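job 3f2a | input accepted
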Amino acid sequence: MARSTRFELPITQIHLDFHTSELVSDVGADFDADAFADTFARAHVGMVTVFGKCHHGWSYYPTKVGAVHPSLKFDLMGRQIAALHKRGIRAPVYLSVGLDERSWRLDPGLEAVGPGGRIRDALRPGWHLLCMNAPEYIEYVAAQAEEVLENYPADGLFYDILMHPKPSCQCARCIARMVREGVDPEDPASAAAFSHRVIREAHQRLVRMFRGKPKGLSCFFNSCFTLAARDLVPYDTHVDVESLPTGGWGYGHFPLMGRFGRTFGKPFVGMTARFHKSWGDLGGLKPQAALEQECFHALMLGGLCNIGDHLPPRGRLDPPVYERIGRVFREVKAREPWCHGATPVAPIAVVAAPDPSGRTSIVPMAAAGAVRMLAEAHLLFDVIDAQADFAPYEALVLPDDVRLDPALAARVKAYLARGGKVLATACSGMAPDEDRFALAAWPVSYVGPARHTQPYFIVGKDLSCGIPDMPHALYRPGPEVKAKAGAAVLARLGDPYFSRTWRTFSGHTEAALSRRTNRPAIVQKGRVAYAQAPLFTAYAETAYPVYRQVVANLLDRLLGRRLLEVTAPTTARVTMLRQGRRTVIHLMNYVAERRAEGMDIIEDRQPLHDVRVAVAIGKKPRRVYLAPEETDLKFTFKGGRVEVVVPVVDGHRMIVVE
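job 3f2a | predicted structure (658 res):
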C-alpha cells in the first residue's frame, strides 16, 4: 500500500514506542518485518505509529540530519512502514521533540529550567526536558520531519512532548527574551502567556512540513491538548487524548478530557496502553477487562481506540500482548458499523475553567467532580471551555469558580436570553477578582465570606427527591449570599455551635448543628439555579452522594424529563450517539478498585441484569436491538418514548433504535 491520499483514521490503533539507550548493543537483532506486521494484522490493528526518533535522541532510519542508534545495522523504520503498508495498515511516524538526551548531551544549555531551578537531578535516571524557545533545536526537529516525509511513504507525523515548565521556562534564553519583549518573568500569568506563545511558534514551524504533501497525512502535537489550548488544536488533524489510568492519569482523567476532545469537530482518539503501570513497563500487561473498559469508553464518547506498546530492543513483539490486544480489538471492530460517523448527544455542557493563574491544570478538581457526578447520575453531557459555542446546549454547568469577565458575561447573558439554563456553584458567576456577581440574572447577591468552616444545609421539599431528611454537612463552605426578590430558596444553611479551632472544638470533627437558619444555600430564579457551596470540588474530595443527588435534582428541575433514562447503579456509564436515523445507546459497567497505593485496577467484569432504558425518540421505531450481535429486543412505545429492558450488560452493550 502506498501512502494514503485520504485522511481517515482507523478505529483500532497502536502507538509503538522504542526509547532505547545507546548502551543497548543489539537493537533489531531479532527483527523480522513479516512477523512484525503479521502480528498487528492478526490483532485487527488498522494503524501503527512507528518510531523515527526516540527520547534518547537516536533515529531508527538512515538519517543525514540526526544520528542512527549506534547498534542498529539496517533501516528499521523503513522496513516497518513497508511491511505494514503491504498489509493495508496505516503507518505514521513518531518524533520525540521535548525529550532528546543526545541533543542535551551535545548542548546542556538546551535544558528547560523550572521555577525552582533545574528540573532533573543530574544523578537521578530520567529525561531532561528541553526548552522549546531554542530556534536551532526546533530547526533540527523540522529537518528530521522533512527528511522522513520526503524519503518515506509515512502516513503522517506524531510530534511528542511539546511542553514547558509551568508557568514558564526560566533558562537564560527565555529570561532574556521575556525581558527583551517586555514580559515580566516574575508575573505567573505573563510568564505562562509567553510560554504558550513559544509552544504555538513551535507548532507553526513544525506543521510547515505538510505543505505540498498529500492531504491524507495525519499530524498531532502531543502534550499540548489541555483545557487552555484551544488555539493549538487547528494545527492537529485530529485530537489524541493520552490517558493511561494506571500510569498517573487515573480513571477520572479520560471521562473529562475525552468529552472535551470530542467537541472540536475533528476525529478524536482515546489513547491508553497495555502496560500494568505507565509507559515502557515492558514486564507488565494490563488485564483484559481494563483494556476493554478503556477502549469501549472511547467508543462510547464517539472516539477511536489507541493502545500504546513498546517494542523490546531486539525487535520482536511479545505474542501474549497482541493475543490480548487482538481479543479486545476484535470486539471493537465488531462494533464499528454502529460507531462510524456517529455523533454524541449532549444536552448539558460542563464549562471547565483552567486555573486563572495560568497554571494549566489538566483536570481541575471542580470540573473533575462535575464530570464524575454527571456520569454517575447517567446524564448526557460534554465538557467545554469558556470560548466554546454555547448554542448546542440546553444547560450549562459552571462548577465552583468559573468567573465571568465582561466578554464571557455578555455571552452567558445572550445564552440565557435565547432560553438557555445555567447551574452555578460557589464563586461561579462572579466577576474576576471582585466580590460581586457579574449578571443580574443570578438569583443571589454576595454578602460576605463563609461564617463557618463547615456549615450544614437543609434541603426543602422541592429538592428532596432521593435525599435523606436531615441536615447535611458542607465539607467545603461557600460565600454567604442573599436571595433576590422572587427567587425560590430550595435549601437553607444550618450553623454549627462553633467553627472547629484549637480553642473551640467538640468531638472528633466539626461541631454539631446548633440551629437552622433562613440564609439560603440553594436558590433558583427562572433559568438560573445557584448553590453557594463548592459542591463539585467537595464531591471530588469526598464523593458524598447527597451532593450528586442535589445536582441531579437541580438539573432535572431546569431541564424537565430526561432525554434518556436508565435504571442502573452509579458504577454504570451511559452515553447516546446518533448515526443517521439510528440512535445508539452505550451501556458499560466496569468497576475500578483501589488495590495498590495510588493505583486503581480493573480486573473483572461486573454484569448487570434487567437494566431498564427509556429514550425520547419522537416516532415509533422500526426495530430495537443489541449490537453487534443484532439480537432484537421487545420494546414499548408510548408518549414519544421507547422503553426496553436489557437482560444482561456484561461489560459493554449497545442498544440500537432505528
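job 3f2a | Residues 188-207 form the longest helix (20 residues).
job 3f2a | closed
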